[in-house]
Amino acid sequence: MLHKKDDVRDELLDEVFASGDLSVSLPKYRMPQKEHLAAHAYQVVTDELMLDGNSRQNLATFCQTWLEPEIRAIMADTLDKNMIDKDEYPQTAEIEARCVHILADLWNSPDAENTLGTSTTGSSEAAMLGGMALLWNWRARQRAAGKPTDKPNMICGPVQVCWHKFARYWDVELREIPMEGDRFIMNAEEVIKRVDENTIGVVPTLGVTFTGQYEPVHEVSDALDKLQEEKGLDIPIHVDGASGGFIAPFTLPELVWDFRLPRVKSINTSGHKFGLAPLGVGWVVWRDAAELPEDLIFNVNYLGGNMPTFALNFSRPGGQIVAQYYNFMRLGREGYRKVHQSCHDTSMFLAEEIAKLGHFDIINNGGAESGIPAVSWKLKDGVDHPFTLFDLADRLRTRGWQVPAYTMPADRQDLPVQRILVRQGFGRDEASLLMADYRAAIEHFDKHPIVNSMTEEEAGSFHH
Ligand SMILES: *Cc1c(COP(=O)(O)O)cnc(C)c1O
């Protein structure tokens, strides 16, 4: 009896690492037969995450890694809310609708109060929906004209992988304009060359993944206007504003890229990137309700009420949407401008420091005029480098920094570049610490030149 009591006592009082539960390693690929104390399981699982990189030093990601304590509180408060249950949680639904209207207004929709849009899990889902609307509208146009609908194509510059997915899933030919020399984005001339009556739309990116640059939406739109006058082809534009949709309106308001251009029919953005919301929210908004084919909207009645839905997911957390709305109220236009301008400033500081090192040419300095707060650079031609960008990326990892190096897409696969994404939470002080480590890495390679450099694969390409 006493022995039994002692057993239980041990179980209750053992220090976690001295416990019987943790005196053995847990199985990794099958479920254990027996239960474990919650505290013990928690310790083991969260300890394993120490092996992940430190997200704040992850300069590859575009997504938020620093969040205000109030956002953490909102996420905890809303953990139990399914955003699809719009009848049960009408106020969360109302907040989502307000966010759509706030974005429509921010992007200068002519009819922001009545337009349509939706939250999504990110820009990938939002792009899928935007692309589908282009495809459906094109098919309707073709059918009305008695023309075939079997060979749709879409024109873009060097896009994020979500557009490759869209094209493959929907059997749309992707006419991706290749990079050429020092041109790393689309231009009007290259777009017009590729347009025909089977073009469902043109998709410029505001903040290209590889360099952070803004593609020239206005110039492309003007060229398509001219094309319409000459040839009668009316080609719509969808803007992938995953990052830029939340930056340009604040730090470069004079840039005309949004619904001020009548040809821009829809825009997607990532709330969890420069929208400053926690991971798991994106947005797609149409210029006006008429641009969203009714066919794509489903009405469901089994949640109570009759709810129109247009999204790929059904159940989804509501917290990110509430946090997005919190940011709108908390920061306002002025707050967003300040946060993003400080990121641009830090980017330009980094670009100057990197240029001073003598080894590199800056491709984009991350200033507000050229794109999002991202610095990208390449090795200078005609100078001896005792390292490659992949070696540098690998060396920086010894200090926890994740600064991606990768080769460009077609037709510049020969060109390796490196890139830093500056986000809220990566300030001037961290930037100066990073630069000290960057200089130290170069000094290291000056002393110990690399004889046999790593390949891109060996270095583990980890850009987005
Ligand atoms: C990040 C990104 C995407 C994908 O967005 P997610 O929110 O990660 O799904 C699409 N396009 C561009 C230009 C991006 O930067």
What does this structure look like?
The protein has helices at about 1-15, 40-50, 70-75, 90-105, 125-145, 160-170, 190-195, 215-230, 250, 320-355, 390-395, 430-445, 455-460; strands at about 115-120, 155, 175, 200-205, 235-240, 265-270, 280-285, 300, 305-310, 360-365, 375-380, 405, 415-420. Helix 4 runs parallel beside helix 10 (about 320-355) and helix 10 (about 320-355) packs across helix 12. The relative contact order is 0.13. The N and C termini lie far apart (about 60 Å). The chain has a domain at about 70-330: Type I PLP-dependent aspartate aminotransferase-like (Major domain) (Aspartate Aminotransferase, domain 2, 3-Layer(aba) Sandwich). By secondary structure, the protein is of the alpha/beta class. It contains 13 helices and 13 strands. Pyridoxal-5'-phosphate (PLP) binds near residues 160, 162, 209, 282 and 464. Pyridoxal-5'-phosphate binds near residues 122, 124, 209, 242 and 282.
